[in-house]
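4.2 Preliminary Data

To establish feasibility before requesting continued support, the project team ran the inverse folding procedure on a target of 707 residues. The structure was first converted into the token representation described in Section 3, and no sequence information of any kind was made available to the design step. The complete token record follows.
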């Protein structure tokens, strides 16, 4: 192992964070908005940045440098400027951010503007906003996503909606703008304004409302905006490689090069770190066993019109349309996001269940953790939908990402103009170069993809609620028996995986000592050939696990198939208890948690319907990585409306709620059937995986020979 440690040391010595920092800053130069930045899907700025990265890959000496063409919906946000003369005659000019919608004024135009609080349905009662700009407050972390109030305004005839963050995001300063994916149609135009600039408008609007004895005020502004969305445009993922001994086995490193504002952390630093790792490996002279592929991905922030799943389009297209042949060949995808800032006192690598055992062993060897992480380094799982690693995983590519989502940076600087080099931490950046560079070397010395399927079966077993099974009559006994059997097979498989990888490591060590000659080389190649079918089978099982078990709820959280119905039933049972007691408010509180019915509380029926149907009844090519992950829905809009009326009539208690009780009882029956179906489905899925693992063990015993 000493020789292997020498390679790690050489890599650490070859890391040059100054190179990576300069590249991250250079990526800021192309921009769609000359004042604010933005480098968005399919835009000229994104294409120019891709050209920079393409040339840099060639300059570094990567092989097979090329552009993979993908189809996305493009967005070019050139500017949005609002001029306003306040009541004291002072003139103001505000720079606005934007969302991925279509809006052109062709110069400054005069608009009436109204302020409507949270922008929910009740704020529009008896108010005509036709052709006007509607100013609202929003907290996307704790309330609802931007698409709901935007579409509400659109249906009411508004020219555009302008949102100001009320906590949730952009909390670093009152001058912060914020940008997110729109998750809605391009025709419903939307922009963002800072709290400081909005305060000027709100002050005058409040005075106008008071003078007119109205609930809202109205004023006149000049607005000049240019935001263009075009469907089905081409952009490019930029790919280069370091060839390995095994051309059919790959390790993938990825990061996205589109951004909001200047995007120093998200994701310039990540792309630059990927290049920095490639540069360090090349500088050491290390010859990898597997081909190392470096992929700069376009269109991560947004890339699909009118889809709930409108981000990570570039990664999805890469592995499903541009390079589907990567499926079954890639041992792991190391995806990078916001890596030059400590997001908390403990650093983390977030990975799929199946990689957790390998990663936990790997991180035990890491002892050069910077002071920015006083609580050390941990492995967390499973992956989330926030970044490109999710698209990779559902394609059958085991994936991981540096943990970035839990820190306060996400609420303060993220997706704002304050994501800049001022918050750069060189020691964190260097550590991540070294950590993930060493991880590449560790995976590269595995002859067999180190997947422990037992971790998934443990998690599935833990997710099965015996009480819920008993209440619904689901009968979990057979499922649990099969999970136990699957867990034992997974343990046997992983023991073999570890054994062959240990032997492979010994052969590599002997080969790199250059003292064993041709015999060792032949042994290595023989072992690699013997493992090809075994690897193919392991990666196939991994892919089927994603197909069988990875589902999403209406808030984009990853869960197992029965958990959506289980969560609904918990809320339904609480609501039924409240209805029996005549407690309308208590039942409303419970119904709020069923599927996406929380939006029925605040928005018109058509808004609720629209953002339900576009998940359930859109083609897969618009849903991308979300297709088929939500398969059922309980529409309780009418029930919510009736309960709200009852609550308002009798103050929430003592109402006659028998009709509502009977209706919800039927919903309970539907969801109980869903839960039973899901348990049976998982039982059948585990049985299929048992068969696949048994075949995989036979392949190992027949073809993988080492001694």
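Position-by-position output of the design step:
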């Amino acid at each position: 192992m000493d020789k292997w440690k020498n390679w790690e040391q050489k890599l650490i010595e070859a890391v040059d964070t100054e190179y990576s920092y300069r590249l991250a800053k250079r990526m800021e130069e192309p921009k769609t908005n000359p004042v604010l930045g933005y480098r968005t899907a399919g835009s000229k700025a994104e294409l120019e940045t891709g050209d920079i990265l393409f040339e840099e890959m060639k300059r570094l000496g990567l092989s097979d440098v090329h552009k993979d063409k993908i189809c996305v919906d493009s967005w070019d946000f050139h500017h949005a400027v609002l001029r306003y003369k306040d009541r004291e005659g002072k003139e103001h000019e505000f720079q606005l951010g934007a969302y991925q919608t279509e809006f052109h004024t062709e110069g400054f135009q005069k608009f009436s503007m109204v302020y409507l609080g949270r922008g929910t349905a009740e704020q529009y009662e008896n108010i005509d906003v036709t052709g006007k700009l509607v100013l609202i407050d929003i907290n996307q972390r704790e309330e609802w996503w931007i698409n709901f109030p935007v579409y509400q305004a659109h249906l009411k005839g508004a020219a555009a909606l302008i949102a100001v963050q009320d906590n949730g995001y952009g909390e670093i300063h009152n001058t912060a703008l914020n940008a997110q994916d729109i998750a809605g149609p391009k025709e419903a135009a939307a922009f963002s304004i800072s709290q400081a600039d909005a305060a000027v408008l709100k002050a005058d609007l409040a005075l106008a409302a008071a003078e007119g004895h109205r609930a809202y005020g109205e004023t006149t502004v000049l607005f000049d905006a240019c935001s263009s969305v075009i469907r089905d445009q081409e952009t490019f993922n930029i790919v280069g490689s370091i060839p390995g001994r095994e051309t059919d086995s790959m390790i993938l490193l990825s990061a996205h090069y589109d951004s909001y504002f200047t995007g120093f952390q998200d994701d310039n630093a990540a792309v630059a770190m990927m290049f920095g790792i490639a540069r360090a490996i090349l500088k050491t002279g290390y010859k990898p066993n597997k081909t190392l592929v470096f992929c700069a991905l376009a269109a991560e922030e947004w890339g699909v019109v009118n889809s709930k799943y409108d981000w990570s389009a570039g990664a999805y297209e890469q592995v499903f349309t541009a390079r589907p042949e990567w499926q079954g060949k890639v041992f792991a995808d190391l995806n990078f996001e916001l890596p030059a800032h400590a997001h908390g006192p403990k650093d983390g690598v977030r990975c799929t269940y199946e990689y957790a055992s390998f990663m936990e062993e790997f991180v035990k060897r890491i002892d050069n953790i910077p002071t920015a992480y006083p609580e050390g380094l941990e492995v967390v799982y499973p992956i989330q939908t926030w970044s490109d690693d999710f698209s990779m995983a559902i394609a059958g590519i085991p994936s991981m990402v540096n943990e970035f989502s839990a820190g306060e940076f996400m609420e303060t600087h993220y997706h704002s103009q304050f994501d800049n080099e001022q918050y750069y931490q060189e020691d964190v950046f260097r550590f991540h170069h070294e950590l993930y560079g060493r991880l590449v070397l560790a995976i590269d010395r595995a002859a067999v993809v180190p997947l422990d399927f037992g971790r998934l079966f443990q998690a599935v077993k833990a997710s099965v609620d015996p009480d819920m099974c008993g209440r619904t009559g689901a009968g979990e006994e057979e499922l649990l028996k099969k999970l136990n059997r699957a867990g034992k097979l997974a343990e046997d498989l992983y023991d073999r995986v570890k054994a062959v990888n240990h032997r492979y490591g010994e052969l590599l060590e002997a080969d790199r000592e250059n003292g064993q000659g041709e015999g060792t080389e032949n042994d290595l190649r023989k072992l690699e050939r013997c493992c090809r079918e075994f690897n193919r089978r392991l990666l196939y099982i991994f892919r089927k696990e994603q197909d069988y078990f990875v589902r999403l709820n209406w808030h984009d959280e990853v869960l197992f198939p029965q958990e959506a119905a289980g969560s609904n039933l918990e809320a339904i049972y609480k609501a039924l208890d409240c209805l029996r007691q005549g407690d309308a408010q208590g039942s409303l509180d419970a119904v709020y948690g069923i599927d996406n019915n929380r939006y029925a509380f605040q928005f018109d029926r058509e808004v609720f319907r629209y953002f339900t149907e576009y998940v359930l009844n859109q083609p897969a090519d618009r849903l991308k990585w979300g297709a088929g992950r939500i398969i059922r829905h309980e529409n309780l809009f009418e029930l919510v409306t009736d309960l709200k009326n009852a609550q308002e009539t009798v103050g929430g208690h003592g109402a006659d709620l028998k009709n509502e009780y009977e209706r919800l009882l039927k919903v309970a029956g539907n969801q109980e059937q869903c839960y039973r179906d899901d348990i049976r489905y998982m039982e059948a899925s585990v049985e299929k995986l048992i068969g696949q693992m048994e075949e995989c063990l036979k392949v190992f015993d027949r073809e993988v020979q080492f001694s």
